[in-house]
Write a structure and sequence with these properties.
heterodimer, A: 127 residues, alpha/beta, six-stranded mixed sheet, 6 strands, 23% helix, B: alpha/beta, Rossmann fold, Alpha-Beta Plaits, 2 domains, nine-stranded mixed sheet, two-stranded antiparallel sheet, 11 helices, 11 strands, 34% helix, 28% strand
Chain lengths: 127, 294
């Protein structure tokens, strides 16, 4: 199983980032080979549609689970559409977040967070 | 494929017997609309409200015989039955409007810039285009002057398609284009259709700061321009100093007064006040020196 965690840094000891679309990196952990890799989030550079760009990358990486703080309506729709489950975590080390997930201690994110400003406020979804 | 509108060059407009003067400011609330509407009436120019996110010039001019039409933009439609989910369209899209998921290509229509790149790269050729309404254009009459405005629909993030369509077919004669505040692409789009510019500012530090950005912008376009200082109070002379340093012509200085503010806030023209009418007549005269007025 591949788990992507929104993070401020590139490794397991980095802290998680509660932002999905604008986090710096995604740390991707493969439970089978216990491999770790980090990809830079293209979303953070996006003028508009940060969450969409981030979701795009996550989908391309073919992950099964995403651990993050919140996810906006656009990204949520895309990630769900690709049968990826999303779990909510506070700010902890990436390794710890993965462990909490394995122990079944993270809640599944079942709703998108509010759409963000700068997106014109006109996007469907939100609360 | 539809041919996208190209840039209109200054020379072309002159040949068409039009003189388009953009009124911009940098800072918001300096008096672009007040100046444009009053100057149109005094100078006999057509009024074009290009601040499509919140057009308000019609409040003052209250034009009659308004005709309205819709502005539409293209968006891609993927035939999901024939789509091979190769993802080329999503990859080429520079605006994150198309995303490939496991089941389908998802479209975020409000991010789409109607560039058609997706249909060019689509190998199975299953992308066609639909049209959706993003705003309207209204045209009416104030006496014998033409008044036009674009209105962007609430919730639409992109104003440029409405601005372009509004400025594509301007009436003959002199047109004052009342721009949006700032120096964003909305203003850049409007300046592409302008032969000259009036920069309206106020004597505050912010007014000066944003004026400098507006000056940079019109200089990039190589447009003749002049500055009008609105809401002037004695002793606040930072704009004059800057204009002197930069060798920029100050077309007029309009004094701040409570009386003018009251007339404005009741939706009337400030040229109803004789002192201000005189000012606007002077501006109209001055413009003839700066721009090749008919």
């Amino acid at each position: 199983m591949k788990i992507a965690v929104s993070s401020t840094g590139k490794n397991l000891s980095s802290m998680t980032d509660v932002r999905f679309g604008r986090c710096n990196y995604f740390v991707i952990y493969d439970t089978e080979g216990q491999q770790v890799k980090a990809i830079e989030n293209k979303g953070q550079m996006s003028g508009a549609g940060a969450g969409i760009a981030a979701a795009n990358q996550i989908i391309d990486e073919d992950v099964d689970v995403v651990i993050t703080g919140n996810m906006g309506p656009n990204a949520f729709r895309l990630v769900k559409n690709s049968d990826i489950n999303i779990y909510r975590s506070g700010v902890v080390e990436v390794e710890k977040a993965i462990q909490l997930f394995k122990d079944g201690k993270l809640d599944e994110l079942t709703d998108a967070g509010p759409a963000h400003a700068g997106m014109g406020g006109g996007f469907k979804g939100g609360r | 494929m539809q041919v996208l509108p190209t840039q209109v060059w200054v020379g072309d407009l002159r040949e068409e017997g039009k003189l388009n003067i953009a009124v911009l400011s940098g800072k918001g609330g300096t008096g672009k609309t007040t100046l444009s509407t009053n100057l149109c009436v005094v100078a006999g120019a057509n009024y074009i409200d290009c601040d499509v996110e919140e057009p308000n010039g019609f409040i003052f001019l209250n034009p009659s015989q308004i005709k309205s039409r819709e502005v539409k933009v293209d968006y891609p439609v993927v035939d999901s039955g024939k789509c091979t989910l190769c993802g080329a369209c999503a990859q080429v899209c520079q605006f994150n409007a198309l995303v490939k998921t496991k089941r389908e290509i998802v479209l975020f229509e409000k991010l789409c810039h109607s560039c058609h790149a997706c249909s060019i790269v689509c190998q199975p050729e299953v992308i066609t285009f639909g049209k959706r309404v993003v705003g309207i254009i209204e045209e009416g009459k104030y006496g014998n002057l033409t008044c036009k405005r674009g209105i962007l629909n609430v919730g639409e993030p992109m104003a440029v398609p409405v601005i372009k369509e509004l400025l594509e077919d301007l009436p003959e004669g002199t047109n004052l284009i009342d721009c949006a505040p700032g120096t964003s692409c909305n203003i850049v789009s409007a300046l592409r259709y302008a032969n000259g510019a009036i920069l309206v500012t106020e004597p505050s530090s912010l007014g000066l700061h944003d004026l400098k950005m507006a000056v940079q912008l019109v200089r990039n376009f190589n447009l003749p321009f002049g500055v009008i200082i609105n809401k002037y109070e004695v002793g606040e002379d930072r704009i004059q100093k800057y204009c002197q340093q930069e060798n920029i012509k100050i077309l007029e200085v309009i004094p701040y007064s409570r009386e003018a503010a009251e007339v404005y806030s009741s939706g009337k023209m400030i040229t109803e006040l004789p002192e201000y009418k005189e000012k606007f007549e002077k501006i109209a005269e001055g413009l003839r020196e700066v721009f090749p007025w008919n």
